[in-house]
Design goal:
Layout (H helix, E strand, L loop, with lengths): L11 H14 L13 E5 L11 H19 L3 E5 L1 E2 L3 H14 L4 H4 L1 H15 L2 H8 L10 E2 L3 H16 L3 E11 L4 E3 L4 E16 L6 E6 L10 E4 L13 E4 L4 E7 L11 E4 L5 H9 L26 H14 L3 E14 L7 E10 L2 H12 L4 E3 L2 H11 L4 E2 L1 E2 L9 E4 L5 E3 L15 E3 L3 E2 L1 H5 L2 H4 L8 H6 L2 E7 L3 H16 L4 E7 L2 E2 L16 H8 L1 H11 L6 E2 L2 H23 L16 H22 L3 H28 L4 H22 L4 H10 L22 H24 L7 E6 L3 H9 L1 H7 L2 E7 L8 E6 L2 E6 L6 H27 L1 H6 L2 H31 L1
Helix pairs in contact: 1-22, 10-11, 10-15, 16-17, 17-18, 17-20, 18-20, 19-20, 19-21, 19-23, 20-21, 21-22, 26-28
The structure holds one RNA strand of 75 nucleotides.
RNA sequence: AGGCGCGUAGCUCAGGGGGAGAGCGCUACCUUGACACGGUAGAGGUCACGGGUUCAAAUCCCGUCGUGCCUACCA
């Protein structure tokens, strides 16, 4: 125990680093595979190595840490599994930028060297976010940190790939994929962001081959006409019935292409005639397949036009569009242009406009996997919370499309497939094959594509635990207890982990999925670099301290609603942290000479019994709230209790005991104070770990870290309902006197005299026993307790139930103010009574409402009646005096 | 186009069939021996609008308006 007085203001910087080292150094974050305790496990949503801590991470990890610390204190063997993901495209982009600065590029240095450089980059910068997570106080088991590209996880990736391929759940094929010409790779459908853009609908005339006239098509992408292989119309469309079997001439290239009939075409849109470009549009691709059309790809992977684009070869796709339009205009084939707004796909990494391209790629056949993942949630094996996200999950799973998993980049898990240069055989294997099993050729070349990063992330809950080996970790901690994440990766990640976990480990990856909100700015806007409205969590940590920040995030973590974060809000909770600090400071100052605590009911004051009962109730509420992922309710309950019950009332009342010359009284108060403070910091610890450890360590008669102390159980304290009622009475009387002082503007230095008129003997007893609290807290000179007297002269009166508190104000009473005060009170009560009286006058209410409700209303009317009567008497007396 | 959510005190939001709540802000007073990152008191709301169910609706249902987000291959 340290004896010197605590600083007046809490200084987070000094405290945070010290305790984090202490926790980590003492292995307090470590999980065990040999423990009798029940397991509790969470896998971290792996931040990507290019990232820096943002608000989303801060919230996500704060919530996970709250759960982990709470569970540890409740006696669980907790594994919080940390790690990072390799973020294929993003990381490759970062390193490529570096190369560009040095005047080179990856093609010049070659694949092998490039991958080496990425590993070097990762070694230097990839751990940054991990240190930032530590600053947040995250209690991950860092000894188990994993990386999606490390050896074990790579082995899991190969195992999964090969098994899915063998089960015919991975296939390779030519399909239209989303191509990012800047990142130079295919993207999965999910990685495409659709954005509404102002554009034009161009009406282009395709001359009929065998007669005069045109067939006019409407398109948003005139440049793709170079790859057209047909024009389609609806077979039901009367306008075009006579075109059966005919051809039109493709403008510019003057090539005949057939008119085909397909129900897919919407008669109402445009002209009802649709140009078909099977190599550059997913729908056209389908139509093309149905009609065995040729697929002509006219755009290169860098977005330029290729040799099949004839005169436009070498132009960029956007330039080509302009040139074609010019040419169409001059040849009279451009009928008209209409403004048109429609959704255009963009790369989620670099925002470049996506080019749908025909390309050979690897796909996962997700249908069968998705079915099982849906069933698991339907059967309640995994709960998705809040439950409205379940619907979103089903909706997506039921409409799922095959997943394009190959990426044309170098950084990632290279696809374990080899092509035999001799016979063309495709070999998929965990280890590199020496010879072709079919033709025995040794000339094999490995697939150059790598896998989508999410492919490895999908294995995270079991690959990090050692799968495919049957490890103790897997046996102890799988399925994990809960996954905490944002809805933005529900499809990207959660759904895929569900599919893979069920398929490969034969059980769901998590029991609960808790979906938390997005963090937005004060205006409710998404934070983004381009908007410049980012609040940097690291700056917040510096300015306000980790605990203040974590507490703010907890209070704002309301289920199902995005949070608006502002600095004022954080400053407000910084004040709360300081309040905790000062409450502890006061307590510890008075505990220097204390003995080990014990609760001797016989000697407890009303305040003691009350606060000991309240903290038990609060412990129970907080437990319920955390168990239900109601972080905001849990944090608010802490706030209200600590500030408005512990500090506002208990500390003030305990001062009388602690400053008492009666040693026994002081000792009792010290006992209660120790138990109370110990309970408070333990309740708060999951939310604000640093300050609570600091206080815990200074608290007499505690040992070890608060991290491993028992979370408060209601049974540690008292359950004394009478004390609650008695305190309500006491607080009501004190509040009444304060109210009059405030309203009447009685200077604080002016001690006033009070007469309390109380009939009930029990109530009288309570007040008499606690007179010293009233005099001190209401700053009163003296109190007389009487029964059934006339209202004293020059008094202001507060009516509390059937108790009247007369404040004697000789020479200070402003009659007009007092009259107004009472009148206002009367009006308020009358309004309330009206409502209740009407209810009682209603036969239906009396007969149909539940009896306890009716009783309540009757009781309320009776109480209000008494109060009203007294108020009216007081008013009359006052007017007579006037 | 569908789906989900939101509209409650000046601001940010809890609550969710029977007495309108919190934080911040605001007003007045207070250098009280834990804390001015503090204390005491106070002002402030036909709970978006219109219907319906009910003895009773801010709360449940339907509709309207406003607003946000997600999903989607109509060129």
């Amino acid at each position: 125990m340290e004896n010197h007085v605590l600083a007046k203001t809490y200084e987070p910087k000094e405290v945070e680093e010290k305790w984090y080292y202490y926790w980590e150094g003492n292995d307090l974050f470590k999980a065990s595979t040999k423990s009798d305790k029940p397991p509790f496990s969470i896998v971290i949503p792996p931040p990507n190595i290019t990232g820096s801590l943002h608000m989303g991470h801060a919230l996500n990890n704060t919530l996970q840490d709250i759960l982990c610390r709470y569970k540890r204190m409740n006696g669980y063997n907790v594994l919080w599994q940390p790690g990072t993901d390799h973020a294929g495209i993003a990381t490759q982009n970062v390193v490529e930028k570096d190369l560009a600065l040095k005047g080179t590029d990856r093609h010049q240095i070659g694949r092998e060297r490039f991958v080496e450089l990425v590993w070097e980059w990762r070694g230097k910068f990839g751990g940054m976010i991990i240190n930032q997570l530590k600053r947040l106080g995250s209690s991950c088991d860092w000894s188990r940190e994993r990386f999606t590209m490390d050896e074990g996880l790579s082995r899991a990736v190969r195992e999964v790939f090969v098994r899915l391929y063998d089960e015919n759940l991975i296939y390779q094929g030519d399909y239209i994929i989303n191509w990012c010409p800047r990142c130079h790779t295919a993207l999965a459908d999910l990685e495409v962001e659709h954005e509404d853009m102002d554009s034009f609908l161009y009406y282009i005339r395709y001359p009929l081959e065998d007669r005069q006239g045109y067939l006019t098509v409407a398109t948003t992408r005139p440049e793709t006409l170079l790859g057209d292989t047909a024009v389609a119309v609806n077979p039901e469309d009367e306008r075009y019935k006579d075109l059966s079997g005919s051809y039109v001439l493709l403008p510019v290239l003057n090539k005949p292409i057939p008119v085909i009939f397909d129900r897919y075409v919407d008669k109402e849109f445009g002209t009802g005639a649709l140009k078909i470009t099977p190599a550059h549009d997913p729908n056209d691709f389908e139509v093309g397949n149905a009609h065995q059309l040729e697929r002509i790809r006219v755009i290169n992977e860098d977005g330029s036009m290729n040799e099949l684009a004839g005169p436009y070869q070498g132009m960029d796709r956007f330039e080509c569009r302009e040139r074609i339009l010019d040419d169409l205009k001059s040849s009279g084939l451009l009928e008209k242009i209409e403004p048109y707004r429609h959704a255009v796909g963009h790369c989620y990494r670099c925002k470049t406009m996506i080019e749908p391209l025909l390309s050979k790629q690897w796909f996962v056949r997700v249908g069968p996997l998705a079915d099982k993942a849906v069933t698991a949630v339907k059967d309640g094996k995994t709960r998705i919370l809040p439950s409205n996200w379940e619907g979103v999950y089903y909706e997506w799973m039921n409409n799922i499309r095959d997943w394009c998993i190959s990426r044309q980049i170098w950084w990632g898990h290279r696809i374990p497939a080899w092509y035999c240069q001799g016979c063309g055989e495709v070999i998929v294997a965990k280890e590199e094959p020496r010879v072709c099993p079919s033709c025995k050729s040794k000339n094999l070349r490995q697939e150059t594509d790598v896998l989508d990063t999410w492919f490895s992330s999908a294995l995270w809950p079991f690959s990090t635990l050692g799968w495919p080996d049957s490890t103790d970790e897997l046996k102890t901690f799988y399925p994990t207890s809960v996954l905490v994440t944002g809805f933005d990766i529900l499809f990207f990640w959660v759904a895929r982990m569900m599919m893979m976990g069920i398929h490969f480990v034969e059980d769901v990856p998590f029991r609960d999925v808790y979906i938390h909100a997005l963090v937005k700015d004060e205006q409710g806007q998404k934070m983004s670099k381009s908007k410049g409205n980012i609040i940097d969590p690291l700056e917040v940590l510096d300015r306000f301290g980790t605990d203040a920040f974590r507490f703010t995030l907890s209070v704002l973590a309301i289920q199902g609603r995005d949070m608006r974060l502002s600095e004022e809000r954080i400053a407000g909770y910084r004040n709360f942290i300081n309040k905790i600090w000062n409450a502890a400071r006061f307590s510890l100052m008075n505990l220097r000479d204390c003995r080990p605590p014990s609760l001797d009911n016989g000697n407890l004051t009303l305040a003691d019994r009350w606060i000991m009962t309240r903290i038990g109730q609060v412990a129970e509420q907080i437990t319920q709230h955390i168990d239900g992922y109601k972080f905001n309710d849990a944090a608010s309950t802490c706030y209200q209790f600590v500030w408005h019950e512990f500090c506002d009332w208990y500390v003030e009342m305990a001062k009388l005991e602690l400053y008492s010359r009666d040693r026994k009284r002081r000792e009792v108060a010290q006992s209660v104070m120790q138990i109370l403070l110990s309970g408070v910091v333990r309740l708060l610890h999951p939310f604000v770990p640093f300050i609570t450890e600091e206080i815990w360590q200074r608290l007499p008669h505690t040992d070890g870290s608060i991290m491993v102390a028992q979370f408060p159980q209601p049974t540690e304290f008292l359950s004394d309902d009478e004390s609650i009622k008695e305190m309500d009475l006491l607080r009501g009387v004190i509040a009444g006197i304060r109210n009059i002082r405030g309203e009447m503007n009685i200077p604080p230095r002016r001690d006033v005299r009070i007469v309390i008129d109380v009939k009930g003997s029990r109530e009288r007893q309570i007040l008499e026993d606690n007179l010293h609290y009233i005099t001190t807290l209401a700053k009163v000179e003296s109190i007389d307790i009487v029964s059934g007297i006339e209202k004293p002269d020059s008094s202001a009166t507060y009516v509390f139930g059937d108790i009247q508190v007369h404040v004697l104000l000789k020479g200070l009473l402003n009659y007009e103010d007092e009259r107004k005060r009472i009148y206002k009170e009367i009006k308020k009560i009358e309004r309330e009574m009206d409502v209740s009286r009407k209810k009682l006058a209603n036969k239906d209410f009396l007969s149909q409402a539940p009896p306890p409700i009716v009783e309540d209303v009757k009781e309320k009317v009776a109480l209000m009646g008494v109060k009203l009567e007294k108020l009216n008497q007081n008013l009359t007396t006052l007017e007579e005096l006037k």
